[in-house]
Amino acid sequence: MHPQGPHLPSLLGLARRGTYIDTDEEGRTSYPRVYAAGVARGKVPGHAIVSAGDGAYVAVHLVSDLRGEPYKDHAK
Fold first, then answer.
1. Rama region for 38: left / alpha / beta (φ>0; ψ in -120 to 50; rest)
2. Is 13:27 a contact under the CB 8 Å cutoff?
3. What are φ and ψ of residue 20, in 5° steps?
4. Which residues pair with 16 in a beta bridge?
5. Residue 47, Ramachandran bin (φ over 0: left; ψ between -120 and 50: alpha; else beta)
6. 8 Å CB contact between 21 and 38
7. Which of 13, 25, 26, 66 has its CA 20 to 30 A from that of 60?
8. pLDDT profile of the chain (76 residues), mean per 10
9. Inter-CA distances, 31 with 14, 17, 26, 41, Å
10. What is the torsional sign of CA 30, 40, 45, 56?
11. Which residues make Cβ contacts (< 8 Å) with residue 5, sequence separation at least 6?
12. CA dist list (Å): 8 to 2, 21, 28, 34
């Protein structure tokens, strides 16, 4: 076991791409209804603002999947 305890990706048996969690382009992992974004999927460096951008991108696809239709966020 890892000295800091088990890691969720390992517990779920998520597919990996090297050290990153493998996802499709919209952030879906190999485990149903589990998404990954930003550094976890190797899309961006460890900068918080860039990760937030990828996280928002994945969140829109997550909401679309839950609704069963495309979701558009037109916040001002």
1. left
2. no
3. -100, 160
4. 21
5. beta
6. no
7. 13
8. 62 92 94 90 67 78 89 66
9. 6, 14, 14, 14
10. positive
11. none
12. 12, 11, 15, 11
Classify residue 21 by burial, with Cβ atoms within 10 Å: 0-12, 13-18, 19+: buried
Q: How far apart are CA 28 and CA 37, in angstroms?
A: 9
Q: How far apart (Å, rounded) are the C-alpha atoms in residues 54 and 23?
A: 13
Place of tokens 């090297």: 18
3-state secondary structure of 13: coil
What number of other Cβ atoms are within 10 A of residue 65's Cβ? Answer: 15
Which token pair is 29? 């992992």
pLDDT of residue 13: 92
